[in-house]
């Protein structure tokens, strides 16, 4: 948080409080009430005057977050800033210059359609900053002019005196001057599961992490119980939530690894084709085979033929199919390239609470004076929504809890002292109350099969000052005082004969397992006692300790194992205590060695130091939003492709910075969901494994599409190049090249969209995003396949013309040779297995697509009006289909030999 404003006392009408010198660097949580009144020039009873409020509003503005907005027009124009779009635009211009207006219009429509799709997706993604802004919209009671008023949170100013009650949203960052049993849920900022108990006393430490500032409350958090009074010390952009907004606003989204690769490929292709065109024009000019206009048309034809116009469309459709599959699995993808990105990640950062754990506090261990019991059942798991699953076990054997006197008393004390209720709604249990009480209610239900019923006489709420709560009730014919709270406090209030060494050892054992420990005790009192006096509580009978934990999700453990097998490291980032975080990490088998670092330790490092050491750790505890952002940036500085998973406002900057941000759909805040690229609608961490698999599948199909398009496109251009260099007539007319591109774009190149994932896709490591889309072997393959297909086309054309047949017959045959070369090459590229294998008919859509392509070819050859447009003619079966099919088989045999050498000999996919 920014250092709070120090007001000049001479400018305030509230200057009658005692002046106490304060250093400007002193934090609000360090100040006493008198110092707070002096620093913020306010009256601790009457509040600010209306005149002073107006002055501060005029100077500081409203308590609301400002966001930068990008105009819709600019958002639309940005969709054209893409190398692939440049290639399409060049193709449209070329066809226009060739007076092929229909082709130019079609390509132009493709460009506009891509831009519209991208624009709609960006608009649907929403604006995370707007969602953050909405968090400050609330009404609160404040004191001004010695009156209690209810005002809109937007009208608060620094120095205002705000009253807080259970259920209130905290409207600004405030320093508490009064806290009566006050607890605040801060998980959206800190990630901690449990509400934080607040105090009013000053805290001298000037370097406290946010989670430990017990006398501060922050905008966007919520009061869960109690009441309090606080002085506003920061509003709008100066609040912690405002600082998060600044972080989100300053994080610049970069292109996904796939788009970076495609942009690089597109730029390289553009440059190569332009250079080749210039060189070819110069050579053709000096050879003087063609007239200048004819040479120019030939070069333009080469450029258009070589341009893989279908690449953007194919890529978009492959990504869209991946998005559709993931949507069916309750994974919502907000931008098409994000589908593939998760397949490239090598680090998955994830929050703990609610993601790796169930966010359902559960009693896992019970310690009585005689035994240490295990309690089975995870979270609020229930059988058919009726009875909670779980039993009491001793030495791995089921144990009747009623046989142990202390256990029997402990269960009833747990039921009598809890205020939490669990309701079965929407096919899941919902907690109403404190998480710790929820764990005790669940324990009671597991043991008795019933909800606890309390015959209450009086209650004493938990208070951080004495660290226990108590309930006076009639139970089994006696009036009993039942107490639960901090083990050390309860032991101090217990009878002197309590074996404190035994209990201390058990407390250490529970804490070492990452369990939160609560002690339960009782005292039989006089039947006439009507009120609890905390000062008279003593000589308690300590019946036991319960060890409570937010249980790991079993599916998360399995998913982590699968991710590790896929070469992906999973890192836990949480606001919890490092011991708790490490205990959960070990239970989840996060890594072979678990090492933790805390937020304050990260704060002490420079960016360079953090980058150098970041890979040594897999658990990050006590982290702030700024820590999370630095962690992601440090990982990216080490060339990792990073995924960030989270659900809180505190995760928003890191979600946006990550290569792919993944938010939780049920328990995630709107801010997190809007900052992320992907949302897990059912909060199931296992969906990440599915998304990684689908991401790798999508990349494989995109890569196959590119490996198919480039050699077949280059073959078209190469026919023109070879013809110019040999000084012979062009085998293909420009219109025929455009036909090949168009018909391929509508049919055969989409066959890879339906290609299923290959076996072992999750056994290989993440791809090297810096290696690009094509390997050296791919480049070699592109060269020899394009040379093979173009060579066959030129040979066939030359053979027919030498026999005295019309050029139009040779052109028609060469056209079909290119098409059948593509068809047979498609079968080679579908997978890494021999073409004749059990996988041959796996992609049935490929056969339907090929059938459509052949029908279109029959139309261009035999329909009179198509013959006129595309310079084709009726042709006999041998020249029209026999020779092209043989040429196709030659392409298949050569490429199958290449695949065998590549996969079986060189062992490279």
Automatic annotation (TrEMBL):
One of its GO terms (cellular component) is endomembrane system. It is a multi-pass membrane protein. PROSITE patterns: ATPASE_E1_E2 (PS00154). The chain crosses the membrane at residues 80-98, 104-121, 262-287, 293-320, 706-726, 738-756, 777-797, 809-827, 847-865, 877-898. InterPro entries: ATPase_P-typ_cation-transptr_C (IPR006068), ATPase_P-typ_cation-transptr_N (IPR004014), ATPase_P-typ_cyto_dom_N (IPR023299), ATPase_P-typ_P_site (IPR018303), ATPase_P-typ_TM_dom_sf (IPR023298), ATPase_P-typ_transduc_dom_A_sf (IPR008250), ATPase_P-type_domA (IPR059000), Cation_transp_ATPase_P-type (IPR050510). Residues 1-23 are annotated as: Disordered. GO terms for biological process: intracellular potassium ion homeostasis; intracellular sodium ion homeostasis; potassium ion import across plasma membrane; proton transmembrane transport; sodium ion export across plasma membrane. Its main location: membrane. It is found in: Endomembrane system. Pfam families: Cation_ATPase, Cation_ATPase_C, Cation_ATPase_N, E1-E2_ATPase. Keywords: ATP-binding, Hydrolase, Magnesium, Membrane, Nucleotide-binding, Phosphoprotein, Translocase, Transmembrane, Transmembrane helix. Residues 27-100 form the Cation-transporting P-type ATPase N-terminal domain. This is HAD family hydrolase. It comes from Companilactobacillus futsaii.
């Amino acid at each position: 948080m920014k250092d709070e404003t120090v007001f000049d006392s001479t400018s305030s009408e509230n200057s009658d409080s005692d002046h106490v010198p304060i250093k400007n660097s002193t934090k609000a949580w360090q100040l006493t009430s008198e110092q707070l009144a002096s620093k913020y020039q306010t009256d601790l009873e009457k509040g600010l005057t209306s005149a002073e409020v107006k002055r501060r509003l005029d100077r500081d503005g409203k308590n609301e977050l400002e966001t930068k907005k990008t105009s819709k027009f600019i958002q639309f124009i940005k969709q054209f800033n893409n190398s692939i779009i440049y290639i399409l635009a060049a193709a449209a211009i070329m066809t226009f210059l060739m007076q092929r207006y229909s082709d130019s219009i079609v390509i132009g429509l493709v460009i506009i359609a891509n831009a519209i799709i991208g624009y709609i997706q960006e608009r649907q993604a929403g604006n995370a900053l707007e969602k953050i802004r909405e968090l400050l919209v609330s009404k609160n009671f404040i004191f001004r002019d010695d009156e209690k008023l209810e005002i809109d949170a937007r009208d608060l100013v620094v120095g205002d005196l705000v009253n807080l009650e259970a259920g209130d949203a905290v409207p600004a960052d405030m320093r508490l001057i009064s806290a009566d049993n006050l607890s605040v849920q801060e998980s959206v900022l800190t990630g901690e599961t449990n509400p934080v108990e607040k105090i009013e006393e000053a805290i001298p430490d000037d370097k406290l992490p946010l989670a430990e500032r017990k006398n501060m409350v922050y905008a966007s958090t919520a009061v869960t119980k109690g009441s309090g009074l606080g002085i506003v010390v920061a509003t709008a952009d100066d609040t912690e939530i405002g600082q998060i907004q600044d972080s989100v606003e300053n994080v610049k989204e970069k292109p996904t690894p796939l788009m970076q690769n495609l942009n690089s490929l597109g730029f390289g292709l553009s440059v190569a084709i332009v250079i080749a065109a210039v060189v070819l024009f110069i050579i053709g000019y000096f050879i003087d085979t063609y007239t200048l206009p004819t040479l120019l048309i030939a070069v333009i034809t080469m450029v258009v033929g070589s341009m893989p116009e279908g690449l953007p469309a194919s890529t978009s459709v492959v990504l869209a199919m991946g998005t559709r599959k993931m949507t069916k699995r309750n994974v919502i993808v907000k931008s098409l390239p994000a589908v593939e990105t998760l397949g490239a990640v090598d680090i998955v950062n994830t929050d703990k609470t609610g993601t790796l754990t169930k966010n359902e506090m559960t009693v896992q261990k019970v310690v009585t004076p005689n035994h240490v019991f295990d309690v089975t059942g995870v979270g609020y798991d229930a059988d058919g929504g009726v009875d909670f699953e779980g039993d009491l076990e001793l030495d791995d054997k089921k144990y009747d809890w009623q046989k142990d006197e202390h256990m029997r008393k402990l269960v009833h004390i747990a039921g009598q002292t809890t205020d939490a209720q669990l309701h079965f709604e929407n096919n899941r249990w919902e907690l109403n109350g404190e998480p710790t009480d929820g764990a005790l209610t669940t324990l009671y239900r597991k043991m008795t099969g019933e909800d606890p019923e309390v015959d209450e006489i009086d209650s004493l709420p938990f208070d951080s000052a004495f660290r226990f709560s108590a309930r006076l009730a009639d139970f089994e014919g006696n009036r009993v005082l039942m107490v639960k709270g901090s083990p050390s406090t309860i032991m101090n209030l217990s009878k002197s004969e309590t074996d404190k060494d035994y209990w201390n050892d058990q407390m250490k054992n529970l804490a070492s397992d990452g369990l939160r420990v609560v002690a339960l005790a009782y005292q039989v009192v006089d039947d006439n006692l009507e009120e609890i006096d905390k000062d008279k509580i003593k000589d308690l009978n300590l019946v036991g300790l319960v060890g409570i934990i937010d249980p790991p999700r079993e599916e998360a453990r399995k998913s982590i194992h699968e991710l590790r097998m896929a070469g992906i490291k999973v890192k836990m980032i949480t606001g919890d205590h490092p011991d708790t975080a490490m205990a959960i990490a070990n239970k989840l088998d996060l890594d072979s060695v678990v090492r933790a670092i805390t937020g304050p330790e990260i704060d002490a490092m420079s960016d360079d130091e953090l980058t150098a050491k970041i890979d040594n750790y897999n658990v990050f505890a006590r982290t702030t939003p700024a820590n999370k952002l630095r962690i992601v940036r440090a990982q990216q500085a080490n060339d990792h492709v990073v995924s960030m998973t989270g659900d809180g406002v505190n995760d928003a900057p890191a979600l946006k910075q990550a290569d792919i941000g993944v938010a939780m759909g049920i328990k995630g805040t709107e801010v997190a969901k809007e900052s992320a690229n992907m949302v897990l609608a059912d909060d199931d961490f296992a969906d990440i494994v599915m998304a990684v698999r689908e991401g790798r599948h999508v990349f494989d199909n995109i890569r196959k599409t590119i490996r198919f398009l480039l050699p077949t496109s280059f073959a078209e251009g190469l026919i023109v190049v070879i013809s110019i260099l040999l000084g012979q007539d062009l085998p293909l007319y420009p219109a025929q090249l455009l036909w090949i591109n168009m018909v391929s774009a509508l049919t055969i190149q989409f066959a890879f969209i339906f290609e299923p994932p290959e076996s072992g896709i999750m056994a290989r490591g993440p791809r090297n995003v810096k290696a690009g889309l094509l390997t050296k072997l791919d480049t070699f393959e592109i060269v020899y396949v394009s040379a093979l297909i173009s060579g066959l086309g030129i040979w066939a054309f030359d053979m027919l013309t030498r026999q005295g047949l019309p050029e139009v017959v040779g052109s028609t045959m060469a056209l079909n040779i290119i098409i059948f070369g593509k068809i047979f090459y498609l079968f080679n590229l579908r997978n890494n297995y021999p073409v004749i294998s059990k996988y041959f008919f796996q992609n049935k859509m490929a056969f339907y697509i090929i059938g459509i392509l052949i029908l279109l070819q029959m139309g261009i050859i035999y329909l009179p009006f198509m013959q006129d447009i595309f310079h084709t003619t009726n042709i006999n079966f041998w020249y029209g289909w026999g020779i092209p099919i043989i040429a196709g088989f030659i392409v298949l045999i050569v490429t199958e030999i290449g695949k065998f050498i590549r996969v079986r000999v060189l062992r490279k996919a």
